[in-house]
Amino acid sequence: QWQNDGVTMTNFPGSDFPSFGWTSVYWYDETAVTTSITDGWITPDSTDLESDIDRGIRAYMGINTFDLSVSGEPRTGNQSIDLTNGDPTDALPNFGWNLVGNPYPCAVNWNLLSEADKNNVDNAIWAWNGTRGRYDFYAPDSLITGDLDSIIPSHKAFWVHATASTGFIDFNEHDKVVAENKFVKSNVQHPLNHLRIKMTSSMNSYDDVVILRWRKSATRNYDNNLDYFKMYSALIDEVPSIAFVTEDNRDVCVNTIPHGTTSLPLKAFAGNLALGTYTLTFENLNEFAANACVMLEDLVLGTTHDLKSNPEYTYDVLAGDEAITRFIIHIEVQYDLMAENASCQGLTDGSIEVEHNTQSSFAVTWSDNLGNVIGTDLSNSSNYMISDLAPGTYHVDISGNCMLDDMVVEILDPQPVVADFSLGGETFELNEVITIANNSTGSESYYWEMGDGTSYNGFAPTHFYSNPGTYSIELTSYNGSKDCYDNQKLQVEILLSSVGIEDAEDGVITAFVSNESINVINRESIFIERLQLTDMNGKLIKSQSVKGNGNTTMKMPTLSSGVYMLKIVTTDSLKTVKLFVD
After folding, report:
1. Which of 539, 530, 541 is nearest to 495 (CA)?
2. What end-to-end distance do the CA atoms of the chain give, in Å?
3. Residue 9's pLDDT is what?
4. Contact by Cβ (8 Å): 154, 105
5. Gap between the Cα atoms of 101 and 103, Å rounded
6. How far apart are CA 470 and CA 454, in angstroms?
């Protein structure tokens, strides 16, 4: 509950001036809305009004600075806020706005809330910015219109928009963060590929901002969680306001559109107390639409302004502008570029294809990242191919129906293709299933030749051999286009028969660990080809060639305590001895 911290309150029972005629404190009740968003503002019945997590409070404090204090037990654990929308079909929308609060005595990060924690609600927040006289907006993807970001300070009231008759927000302990922003403060960098349109004047510090961006999945209608509703200022008569209008007549502060030529309605007006000269500034225009002509049509004056030549437009706001859509932004995409990366690492076969949408003959110049011109040409058709490019950054300059900026294109050097695989050993029994571990990199497809006439496609096949002998297993791994590849070969020996552990320990051939070595006792002078030391999972630890019929030793590698298997490969058999390492 708020304490008496010196904030002057007016026009409600128990306030400093209960009959002042102007109310300084409100809370918001979405269920009270009947026709307009302003219907939800509720005057307190007394100074006992509590600020709760589902009830944000709007308080006028003037230009003064106050330190506010609260009392009571701090909230911990899961905190759920119920949301309402009295008319989800409302197109403006006037319904669905809920003024809520951060439930914890520390900051939370909106981006940490999971999708399940945001039920039937737009993935965005709005908050009042008194300095600019508007509601600032934030959504993930660095969508911001002002000084708000994802960090919500302790006790901050903020707006969310419910998309159905009921919904909720669940805050959890893991949503808390150490950072503590001011009530409106953003450290987020505006993405350069977002077009920001700002409406300002020299009459005051108030302004307004909207954002335009491309998405392949977008439509010209309102798209949930791609477009975001415009929340007009509470000082609508005193400030500038700007909004895009979607094809299904929704006012939005973020408009997401599909790629291509289009025309977009734009509202830009000011209240009756703020009429005058305003400037529309189009920020990041060249990054947003380097390959397009962008014109601003003023439907009131009947004029057209080339924004690529001058990204600012100054005009007089007239009474009645709020009732109309005064501007149309015409975006005419001149050309499209398609880059093809080098096919293999180190090759210079990258390319850039130009497809012109408005001219059948055009000039094209391409330069490196230092500005050195590599080539220039005049295309006699709507398509042109720039070939034989090494990996790197290129600037492509193409003529069009307006002044166009260079397009920056990156030709990537692909990851090298490396074929690499391993087996569980070098010697296997007849009909024993061999498991292959594929460790290849930079590869997307694989071809195996097993040396016995069998071949496989796939990441890691299994195989067994029906006849004894020595076989070469070869892997060829390819990149996606199969233009570059690498291969590796490993040999395996398949023995006619094998002797199990019990047979190997019959005294003919025995082995034991002594003095950091594995000693092999060969009592009947059997010819030994090699020794293989594995763990109990069959992973090869060490292999040693012997080629003799006497006793032999293997210098023991550093081993942890446990049980190991020594495979003794003879001329016609495989004997296995179990070793214990302390």
Report:
1. 530
2. 68
3. 87
4. yes
5. 6
6. 15
For the cut 50, the answer to whether the pLDDT of residue 466 exceeds it is: yes
Report which of 163, 130, 159 is spatially closest to residue 250, judged by C-alpha positions: 163
Give the H/E segment covering residue 229. Answer: strand 228-229
Please give the pLDDT value at position 516.
81
3-state secondary structure 110-129: HHHCCHHHEECECCCEEEEE
- 385 to each of 350, 367, 380, 557, how far by Cα in Å? 11, 15, 12, 60
83 by Cβ neighbours in 10 Å (0-12 / 13-18 / 19+) ranks as: buried
Is residue 30 scored above 90 in pLDDT?
A: yes
Using pLDDT thresholds of 50, 70 and 90, give the confidence band for residue 499: very low
User: Which tens digits make up the pLDDT trace of 224-278?
Assistant: 999 999 999 989 999 999 999 999 999 999 999 999 999 999 999 999 999 999 9
For the segment 560-570, what is each residue's pLDDT rounded down to a tens digit? 888 888 888 88
Q: Looking at residue 31, what DSSP letter applies?
A: G
Helix or strand (DSSP H, E) at 41: strand 41-42
**Beta strands 528-534; 562-570: pairing state:** antiparallel
Tokens representing residue 581 in the block = 């390492």
Report the pLDDT averaged over residues 73-78.
89
Question: Contact, 159 vs 97, CB < 8 A?
Answer: yes
Render 463-493 in DSSP notation, one character per residue. E--SS-EEEEEEEEEE-TTSSSEEEEEEEEE
Count CB-CB contacts under 10 A for residue 271: 19
Read off the pTM.
0.72
Q: What is the pLDDT of residue 183?
A: 54
Q: Is the pLDDT of residue 142 over 80?
A: no
Q: In terms of residues, how long is the chain?
A: 582
Q: Which of 488, 409, 490, 479 is nearest to 445 (CA)?
A: 479
Element (H, E) at 8: none
Count the Cβ atoms, other than its own, within 10 Å of residue 267: 19
Residue with token string 């004894």: 468
Q: How far apart, in whole angstroms, are the C-alpha atoms of residue 215 and residue 256?
A: 6
Residue 431: other Cβ atoms inside 10 A: 10
Average pLDDT over residues 72-94: 90
Q: Using CA atoms, how far apart are residues 90 and 23, in angstroms rounded to an integer?
A: 29
> Is the model more confident about 156 or about 396?
396
CA pseudo-torsion sign 189, 393, 195, 222: negative
Angstrom distance (rounded) from CA 112 to CA 246: 30
Q: Dump the DSSP string for 514-533.
A: ETTEEEEEETT-PPEEEEEE
Name, in order, each residue with C-beta under 8 angstroms of 185's C-beta and a sequence gap of 6 or more: 147, 148, 149
Identify the DSSP state of 432: P
Give CA–CA dist 476/474, Å, rounded.
7
Region 167-195: what's the mean pLDDT? 76
Whether residue 463 contacts residue 438, with contact meaning beta carbons closer than 8 Å, is answered with: no
DSSP state of 154: T
Angle of CA points 574, 580, 582, to nearest 5°: 155
Quote the tokens at residue 180: 């503590």
User: Tell me, what amino acid is at 336?
Assistant: D
Looking only at the bridges linking them, the beta strands covering 427-429 and 485-495 are parallel
